[in-house]
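Exam revision sheet. Question 4 asks you to relate a sequence to its structure. Input first:
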Amino acid sequence: MLLAIMMAGQVSSHGVQIAYTILNNGFVRVYIEHWHGPLNASSLVNNGMTITTSYGSTTVTQSLDASGFINTTTLSGLPAGSSGVTVLGTCSGLANNYNNWVYYDFAPATCGTPVSITISQGNTYLLTQACTGLYPRTINATFVDKSPPVITAPDITVTSCTAVPVTFDNLTVVDACDPNPTVTYSISSGSTFSPGTTQVTVTATDNQNYTSTKTFNVHVVPPTLNLTTTSNDPCEGEDLILTVTPVTGASYSWSGPNNFSSTAQNPVITNSSVSNSGTYTVTVSSGQCTYTASVVATVHQFGLLPTVATAAITNITPTTAVSGGTVDPNCETTTARGVCWNTTGSPTISDAHTTDGAGPGSYSSTLTGLTLGQTYYVRAYATNKVGTSYGQEYSFVASLNYCNPTTYYSCTYMHMTNVSTSGGITNFSNNSGCSAGYGDYSQTYSASQIQGGSMTMSFSSTGYPMDYSVWIDYNDDGVFSSNEKVISYDNIYGSYTVTASFTVPVNAASGSHRMRVRSEYYGYSPPIDPCNSVSYGEAEDYTFKVEANKPSDPTSITATADTICNGSSTTLTCNGAVGTVYWYTGGCGLTQVGTGNSLTVSPNATTTYYARNYENGKFSDNCANITVTVNTAPVISVPNNISLINDAGQCGAIATFNASATGTPVPTISYSVTSGSFFNVGSTPVVAVATNVCGSDTGSFTVSVTDNTLPTVITQNVTVQLDSNGQASISPNDVDNGSYDNCGIDTLMLDKSTFNCSDIGATSKVVVVTNSSWKKSTVEYVSSLPSFPSQLNNLPSAST
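Answer key, structure tokens:
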């Protein structure tokens, strides 16, 4: 083997030593020490060398990255073959200072073929020589086999119920230089092997005396025998029949309930009863092989419900689905059978159901009247004279099942590269690439547009130009009907990118719909079938959402009364109503208080109401509004009772006062006696009434005037003559000389109004004057009786 390593230039070079070894497996490994520090696998990529290899007469020069790296290892520590590591060249003062290496492994040639390997130069800074003359280096060698033969010995499996000879036909031994290594076995090929597993060791030695060993297993197993056992599961009183698959020349042994045993292949238990129900096991013996199988037998008693199993749900569409069931009558006549379903679970025949004949066995049922997107729960049922029983429950969602078109040359010559939309409320752009004939992007890409709005679509292809058709399943029936085709584009100019537009019907159902884009080689007409198989083309599905147009704004709101009293109501009517009218307070769309064209309200305070139209899942942009003013009835507050002293010289006083009242509008207040009136001495009630449009409120209070002025008493002296009885009397008027009082004199009284002889002469007396307030004034006056003649002094006394 010849190895040569060359590198041009030495500026910024980094290789400092080169060596090689021949590994024990015959590979030549070249080591190059560098000063770059520890490396990793990514450091080797695109940092290789120019290498020339010659195997016999075949020479190849190529740039190769290193096979691997070894970090922080001295020269003596490098992996090596038995002959060690040979140094080819060093840079003085640099070698063995860094101990970081890359290496190249070169496979050995065919035995005896000379090999020459030349490493010419480093292609990057990593392995450029650090000193002149480090490269090139060449190694010449002839491969010498140092590896033992390679043994391939897989396990061997044979089927037999007895011992059987086995030859080792599938074992191979390969050696690099010895075409016929010596092979020996611990058990000879062709020996007889008993049932079970036996291990065999094989030894191979080549002409260089290199030896290898390997073990393998010989499995002798019984042949596979699939036994099938059955029971006819009879009714009480009928024969119970057990069966097993027949095996030629075999014997049978059955066991089961009630100590049952039989050597018949298919035993029969006559006049069976429920006690015969249970597990029956059969042992089948054939030669030295034994097989067992079991069956559960059931003897049905009379008077039981039928047993029914529900069939899986298939053929689901937005409105229909297929199920069914299987009925075991359990010895009673099945009079009705079918499936039942609902949307809540545990359906019964009280829910929607089918009637699919009578009797035992399997049947098919079709569910109808389903709603797209609704989850349904289904059970099979069967009815006999005992009652109705149900099978297991299945659930499913009524959904769409669209066809999946195919393309024979799906991506070989042409396919779509982009589908995009513009002009919609929302749009998408899908750089789909090849989707192998059909791609479902309906869950990831969608566009939307309002009813009556237009949408533009762009299509791009690679390989060849293409024609395009687009369908939208507006009625969501899972079928792209011809009247649902919205684009049919004939690419007459052979463009690789084309655009086309369509308009959403104004009556298109709002919501999400499946959109199908179909392309086909432009040499044909635009695709006419959304589902068929074509030679050249592609189909892609998307979601297209139709947004309902917003309803117009309401024009105004009228009210039976826009000003009401608290506790009253008024009816509001939305003018320009479209669809359903939603009513709010607090602002347009804030607190909802009702729906409908009219709304009767009884607010407790002045409130603004808003009305907004709603149709097809959309609200109008704006609300109409009206403010209902709420007035309140008066609540009056009157002053406390008023107490006054009479005005000077007056038998009473002027009183002023003011009541107040709450309520809207501001109430007016009236009084039974107006403020500023003259109130006579004594108590006078005053009634105040507050009144507005919402009612009135009454309050009362009392004005009391007290007379604190005493009467003025004016008297005059009076002289009276005793009468013949010696008596005389006077009245207050005799004494009064113009007494007066501001409230008028009520009474005049004298402290003495009668006189007799004992009162002759001038006597001071008192007159009392009382007014209406029982105020009293007293004044003295002089009452005089004239002197009698002395001759009368001796007359008898008289009363006065």
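Marking note for examiners. The chain has a mean pLDDT of 89.
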